[in-house]
Amino acid sequence: MVGIRSYGAPEPAALDALETLHLRSLDVLAGFETMVERAEPAFRPTAARFRDLHRVQSEELAEMIARFGREPESKGSLMSTVNRAVVSLRSLVNGVDGNIIDQIQDGEQHVVTAFDDALGEGQPIDVTARLRSMRRELCLLLFETQAAAATGR
């Protein structure tokens, strides 16, 4: 693990990792936007919480990337389209309800891993602090939704 840098621009590898995190966040955001549209009424608030968290985090990550002189991605990767398609197909076959929690947990692991990768590249201290906070927010939401699904709420 590279040490935490002080304020200032990150090394190129650290900025690349930040861009990868932003891209993964955009990709899952696309899936949650479709999920909110197609979710069963009882599950819609959960999908909306994920959508809203990823929207805020994607915007903040884009601001960080722009601050360091790179143009942030705005639409996501091919995975954005795949995520939308998967959610749309699932809504036609099985519906989008609480039974999708395990798939959400699996998909979100890619974002958590991207947080870990970005943190492991020695970001500036202010970026490190914010990334840790953002990762905690996501992990807490994942924990809450998994616990709710396990108890049937």
Written overview of the protein:
The chain is mainly α and 153 residues long. The protein has a single domain (12-151), classed as Up-down Bundle (Ferritin), CATH 1.20.1260. The protein is 74% helix and 0% strand. The chain has 5 helices and no strands. It has helices at 12-38, 44-67, 78-93, 101-119, 125-151. Helix 1 (12-38) packs parallel to helix 3 (78-93), helix 1 (12-38) runs antiparallel to helix 4 (101-119) and helix 4 (101-119) packs antiparallel against helix 5. The longest helix is centred in the N-terminal third of the chain and has 27 residues, at 12-38. The mean pLDDT is 85.
Derived structural class: mainly alpha
Uncertain runs: none
CATH homologous superfamily?
Answer: Ferritin, core subunit, four-helix bundle
* CA-based shape: globular
Beta percentage is under 5%
Query: What is the CA–CA distance across the termini?
Result: 40 Å
Rg computed from alpha carbons, rounded to a whole number of angstroms: 16 Å
Highest CATH level, the class: Mainly Alpha
Q: How many structural domains in the coordinates? A: 1
Biggest beta-sheet profile: none
Q: Write down the overall mean pLDDT.
A: 85
Query: How many helix segments?
Result: 5
Q: What do we call the CATH topology?
A: Ferritin
**Total beta strands:** 0
Q: Which CATH architecture is right? A: Up-down Bundle
Helix content: over 70%
Protein name: DUF2383 domain-containing protein
Domain DUF2383: 14-120
Pfam families: DUF2383
InterPro entries: DUF2383, Ferritin-like
